[in-house]
């Protein structure tokens, strides 16, 4: 699992926001939508990455590692500043409360 751990950690440590996603997932779409207005205003496109897993050859291993790392294997797994904030519902709740913006401004 060493290479998978390195891959995941390098992603979440290299960007302000990283979303592990599947493009067909409605919860992933909700999470990505929550960030849409913040890209370009609070965060730059370079600070934001979505890793779509459905075509990734190690998708299952990545999900297994995310389970160990975050306690959940479901997508989306959303990270801000290296910390998992949860999935789609949690991201939308934070956005509606204004807390997503505050976290992005840190």
From TrEMBL:
One GO process term, biological-process aspect: cellular response to oxidative stress
Family matches, as CDD domains: GRX_GRXh_1_2_like (cd03419)
GO cellular component: cytoplasm
Pfam families listed in its UniProt record: Glutaredoxin (PF00462)
Coiled coil residues, start to end: none
InterPro entries: Glutaredoxin, Glutaredoxin_subgr, Thioredoxin-like_sf
Domain Glutaredoxin: 17-85
GO molecular function per UniProt: glutathione disulfide oxidoreductase activity
Classification via PANTHER family: GLUTAREDOXIN 2, GLUTAREDOXIN-1-RELATED
Protein name (Swiss-Prot/TrEMBL): Glutaredoxin-C4
Organism this protein belongs to: Octopus sinensis (East Asian common octopus)
Record gene name: LOC115220969
């Amino acid at each position: 699992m060493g290479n998978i751990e390195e891959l995941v950690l390098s992603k979440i440590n290299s960007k302000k926001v990283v979303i592990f996603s599947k493009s067909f997932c409605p919860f992933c779409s909700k999470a990505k939508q929550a960030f849409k207005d913040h890209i370009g205003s609070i965060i730059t496109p370079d600070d934001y990455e979505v890793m779509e897993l459905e075509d990734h050859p190690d998708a299952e291993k990545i999900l297994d590692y995310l389970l160990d790392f975050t306690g959940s294997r479901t997508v989306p797994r959303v990270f801000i500043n290296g910390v998992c904030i949860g999935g789609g519902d949690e991201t939308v709740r934070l956005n509606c409360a204004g807390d997503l913006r505050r976290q992005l401004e840190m």
